[in-house]
Amino acid sequence: MISIPTIKRFPSYLRLLRQYKEEGKHWVSATHLAKELGLTPIQVRKDMAGTGVEGKPKVGFEIESLISAIICNLGWDTPTNAILVGAGHLGGALARYDGFATYGLHIVALFDADPAKKGLTVGNKVVKAMEEMESYIKKHAISIAVVAVPADVAQEVVDHLVEVGIKAIWNFAPKDLRLPPEVVVERTDLATSFAVLSAKFRRTFEGDIDCVER
Amino acid sequence: MISIPTIKRFPSYLRLLRQYKEEGKHWVSATHLAKELGLTPIQVRKDMAGTGVEGKPKVGFEIESLISAIICNLGWDTPTNAILVGAGHLGGALARYDGFATYGLHIVALFDADPAKKGLTVGNKVVKAMEEMESYIKKHAISIAVVAVPADVAQEVVDHLVEVGIKAIWNFAPKDLRLPPEVVVERTDLATSFAVLSAKFRRTFEGDIDCVER
DNA sequence: TAGATTGTTAATCGATTAACAATC
DNA sequence: TAGATTGTTAATCGATTAACAATC
């Protein structure tokens, strides 16, 4: 089974490999990928082993094979339909983002609680009322929801989503959700990301500071 | 020194603690925080130890002390001015996002390469031309840049940023950047986040699939 | 062939978890 | 006092890194 850290590096490999393919290259070595992505060659070989693709000594790995193996391992070879809940600033940006197709992800409907937004078109999608959500999910057998609602309503929104059959949630709301263990959740949290940047910045440029007088 | 995994959990603690403070609570136990966030009490105690705040047996930790210690440890107590580069869908959403103030982060200027966007107002900020960027960074002594430009220009944009004095980059472009080691980088990568969701989803609902015929 | 590169097995490193004494 | 909770030290777990034989 492929580890989560390896899974997290797959998209970076994929982007680079696709670029090489476009440039007409056919083979690439772990050494080369490592240098390009700031990793160690050993780690790249381990990650490549995870894809199931075998390399050739002296030559490296076949780019085309790696690309399809990574896509397959991520499950990005079968298109997935998802709904997006929340048509605010962030939700709107997500609705308009055209890069999801690269992951086999298709946002097929957009919902918002604000009646004033109902009927508006955002990124080719017409905003639907929350009341229509349940029937839509059931009718189209949707199992993934992208959640970009305000933090204070996020929990009730996901509770409802789970009730009506959603099995995976990609959470963009700045809120830690409580969900049953059988529901898959992944969050994209700006605060967490910025916290890491802040901490690294302080370490590099400001040194240790004592935050508690004792 | 506080570990990165601990740093990553700090924003979650902070959100919860602020909520409790608002509800008028003064003390909270590691056991309680753990249950609420789906962590183990031992891990929470380790994390709390990192803040420097000491708890009281039987009572727990003083909420107010934890809040200020976490904020201090993240460096969020001193306001930081940053520029935002790229006023597309995502850049626009980031420019309009008002939650950055919680992290002490203030987007003070917005730049875009598209001449058609110059002069437009996005989230209280007027879009400036890339040509104005260097003088702005130097004049206002900016050290952090939020990058939300298309992937194909991301590397040249950050190269330029580093040249003119930027010391930390929060990268939203779907591209792995090559930067000198003294520059701090953190990325928020939708592809990585979705890759983890996809992998978890497959594991939970589809089981192992062999991606390479052998 | 020589040498670059792969793949595997073992060692290291760091974070999480467990165990338990200290404390209010 | 009794018992819940903290804080520390040790054990475990998992990922990264190192070492090295196999290979084209």
* Greatest interface: A-B, 77 and 77 residues
Number of helices of chain A: 8
- Compressed to H and E, one letter per element, the order of chain A equals HEHHEHEHEEEHEHEEH
For this structure, the quaternary state is homodimer
The helicity of chain A comes to: 40-55%
Strand order of the largest sheet of chain A: 5-6-4-3-7-8-9
CATH architecture name of the largest domain in chain A: 3-Layer(aba) Sandwich
- Please give the domain count of chain A: 2
Give the overall shape of chain A.
Answer: globular
Main CATH class of the largest domain in chain A = Alpha Beta
User: How much strand content do the residues of chain A show?
Assistant: 15-25%
Class from secondary-structure proportions of chain A: alpha/beta
Gyration radius over CA of chain A: 21 Å
Question: What does this 3D model show about the protein?
Answer:
- The structure is a homodimer of 214-residue chains.
- With 214 residues, the first copy, chain A, is of the alpha/beta class.
- Helices cover 44% and strands 17% of the residues of chain A.
- The first copy, chain A, folds into 2 domains: 4-74, Winged helix-like DNA-binding domain superfamily/Winged helix DNA-binding domain (Arc Repressor Mutant, subunit A); 80-192, NAD(P)-binding Rossmann-like Domain (Rossmann fold, 3-Layer(aba) Sandwich), CATH 3.40.50.720.
- In chain A, the strands form 2 sheets. A 7-stranded mixed β-sheet of chain A has the order 5-6-4-3-7-8-9. In chain A, strands 1-2 form a two-stranded antiparallel ribbon.
- In chain A, α1 crosses α4.
- The model of chain A has no long low-confidence stretch (mean pLDDT 96).
- At the A-B interface, α1, α4, α5, β9 and α8 of A face α1, α4, α5, β9 and α8 of B.
- The structure holds a DNA duplex (24 and 24 nucleotides).
